[in-house]
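Box 3.1 A note on notation
Throughout this textbook, protein chains are presented in two layers. The first layer is the amino acid sequence; the second is a token string describing backbone geometry. Keep the layers aligned when reading.
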Amino acid sequence: MAGSANKKVLVSRFDRETLRGFMQSPGGLTAEQIELLTPEGALLKIPYSEAKVVCFVRDFDAGETWREHRAFSTRPKTAGLWVRLRFRDGDSLEGVLPNNLMQIESSGFSLIPPDPTFQNQRIFIPRTALQDVQVLGVIGSPLRRRTSRKVEKEKGQLEMFGEP
């Protein structure tokens, strides 16, 4: 049996205050809601319809830093699908999704934010919070094969060792 861990999260909600607490991984994201254990010890069950983003953070005190770092300044280096998510309220966020359809969750999208070394290590966005999802690019696609350029011999060059 795989072990579980409590991860620090900030749950940003539409038109409400942000909640902070711990989410059990795996198991904190159920089919209908987010289960959050507050620092005071209360268990909250937040419906996906109220949640905007769930940020897996290093520290509670830094606040909602996902709002500051919403887009990549250059093309991402991490392999996956580079996407732009547009929320119901008009906000947008870029990130990288895994390029594996088996890892896409039915309740939402788990992505790597534009600056995962900053505060947010990973972000979960419920499908109900989104209006649109656009794929901006495929990074590190296994289908892309590098073609080697054949060097054309100059006319009049001698062949060596019986090369055709």
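The chain has a mean pLDDT of 79. The chain has no helices and ten strands.
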